[in-house]
Amino acid sequence: MIRKISVQDLKPGMEVVRMSSDMWTHLPYLYTKPGVIESEMQIHRIRQEGYLDVFVRYEIPGSTESEEERLERLILDRTSKAPAKNNAPFHEEFRNARKAYDEALHLTRRMVSDVKMGRQVDVEATGHAVEGIIETAARNPDALICLSKLSRYDSYTYAHSINVAAIAVVFGEYLELPKDELLMLGMAGMLHDLGKTAVPDRIINKKGRLTPREFEEVKKHPTYGRKILEKSGNIPQRIIQAVEEHHEKFNGSGYPSGLRKDDTGVFGRLLSLADVYDALTSDRSYKNAILPNKALAIMYGMRDQDFCSSEVQMFIKCLGIFPSGSLVRLDSGNLGVVLESNPQRPLLPKIKVILDEDLRPIPAQLVDLAATETPTVSIVECADPSQYRINLKPYLQSPR
Asked: Which helix (H) or strand (E) holds 256?
């Protein structure tokens, strides 16, 4: 099990979990060097360097459950999901999702340029782009979630805003929010980081740990975003509030205002979940993504601290243990890519088998692991596409 703890509670023998280098935005004083803590001297140095939090892996005595099994139990034991819907075929909807995604990405590039030049945000165009995302999320949310994981790191600055909007809309659809609220939530996702245009590029693009002064500047970007949107006019207050609150935390340790859960709006909290998940699972030029199922385990370890426990549990239910777009290794030795999650049987999604155990391409085979009561094949673990230099996009775009 993965859990975020204070460095004051760190002890020799604990294993520090590898984290995304982007997590400094959310947890600026997080110690992230992975490995086993060797001594009290090492802990003393970590504290002296100013770190406050750390993610560690620990086992519950007597438990033999894997992380995936724990998450499955969480999904099945808690509040049940709404009845399953009849989604549009994945490959059919993937094409629609790509069109909606690309249109939103093009708009985001133009919008960032406009804001840097002092122009107002194009509210009408933003709403139109989000409507396309909402429509594809309603037809098949897995296609949109999958697409959000295929963006290249060289376009991350723009793609991140679209990913957050898409993930937030999928989550809102899962929670059965009405369309007008989905529209505002998606627009808030697209606009949530506009305030970074007012922060110097040398700080935003810095790969190392920020100085205290630099981070104080970064902490202003939600406020900068609010001011940009207020100047644009005709933007609903709930959108502006969500943009300003997307870095606030359940326990009041966030920024810019240190608000607790009861003092924040639900849109800001939903954006925070989508924001952290995308930061953890996106490739960057200087780091590889964390596997989706591990990212969800990490986020569950942030419950009652960064996130409301019930809200992060529902988020995990929404995405599933093996989110769409995940590369998985099967007990047969073959590799497959997850197409659609299965809320009723979370360990048994629909997959496309694409490689044999020696990483040689094989005729693609669509397999519903839950098609029979006793599956003939099962998932052993998530795999890292970058480790095998596998480009998943062709397999996801083609029906075969």
From this structure: none
The pairing of strands 30-31 and 53-57 is parallel
Summarize pLDDT for 199-254 with one digit per residue, the tens.
998 888 777 777 889 989 999 999 999 999 999 888 999 999 999 999 999 999 99
Q: What are 340's strand-pairing partners? A: 350
Instruction: CATH number for 90-319: choose from 1.10.3210.10, 2.40.30.20, 1.10.10.10, 1.10.287.110.
Output: 1.10.3210.10
Domain ranges of the chain: 2-64, 90-319, 327-397
Alpha-helix residue ranges (DSSP H) falling in 357-399: 385-388, 393-397
For tokens 């981070």, name the residue.
Answer: 215
- pLDDT range class, residue 79, cuts 50, 70, 90: very low
pLDDT at 63: 63
Here the tokens at position 381 are 């673990």
Q: Residues near 156 by Cβ (< 8 Å), separated by ≥ 6?
A: 282, 283, 284
Cβ 49 vs Cβ 5: under 8 Å? no
* Alpha carbons 386 and 391: distance in angstroms, whole number: 8
